[in-house]
Amino acid sequence: MKEFYKQILDNNKKWVEKSLAIDPNYFADLAKGQTPPLLWIGCSDSRVPANEIIGAKPGEVFVHRNIANMVVHSDMNMLSVLDYAVNVLKVKHVIVCGHYGCGGVKAAMGNQSVGIIDNWIRHIKDEYRLHDKYLNSIEDETERFNAFVEVNAKEQVYNLAKTSIVQGAWKNGQDLMLHGWVYGLNSGFVTDLNVNISSNDELDEVYQLKL
């Protein structure tokens, strides 16, 4: 355990040296502030690194991660990140990126208790209930799993659009577009789910807030 801890400290030093060798002002420039054009809402899974997937450098992506890339309307952590990204950083894009093989989504397809996370996974189960006819029509379990990952990511994009934060930005004429992706662990490629929202016109009227 001590060797691993020492190794990651050494890795940090090597990274700093390598970065400074390329650009002596690298960290000095980063310290001046951030103006990322993108907020990434992704899964906590260690195999899904936001910056590396899209070839972005530090300072180019504002990131929020949780189990199964969820947008829960009562999650103050997520809402705080979203509010700062939209209203302070003025990001122009928000991507919700799920990934095939997601453990949280898989757990939501079964009834095995896995601890306190059961309460979080309940939100994902609710998404299954909304799409059960479609999902249950898929006989192959792996294909159904993949489809549920996609459905979940799409639903989180719509959950974003329902927030007063996003709708307030649209009302004020701010350029802001929401997107849904799924990342393939075994390929490295992302799949654009073709859910791209730039106004609340695509929501049911009950969700269109009069701000």
UniProtKB/TrEMBL annotation:
Keywords: Lyase, Metal-binding, Zinc. Coiled coil: none annotated. Zn(2+) binds at residues 43, 45, 99, 102. One of its GO terms (molecular function) is carbonate dehydratase activity. Gene3D superfamilies: Carbonic anhydrase. NCBIfam families: PRK10437.1. Its cofactor is Zn(2+). This is Carbonic anhydrase 2. PROSITE patterns: PROK_CO2_ANHYDRASE_1. Pfam families: Pro_CA. SUPFAM superfamilies: beta-carbonic anhydrase, cab (SSF53056). It comes from Flavobacterium frigoritolerans. The keyword Ribosomal protein does not apply. The gene is can. GO terms for biological process: carbon utilization. Binds 1 zinc ion per subunit. It catalyses: hydrogencarbonate + H(+) = CO2 + H2O. Its EC number is 4.2.1.1. Belongs to the beta-class carbonic anhydrase family.
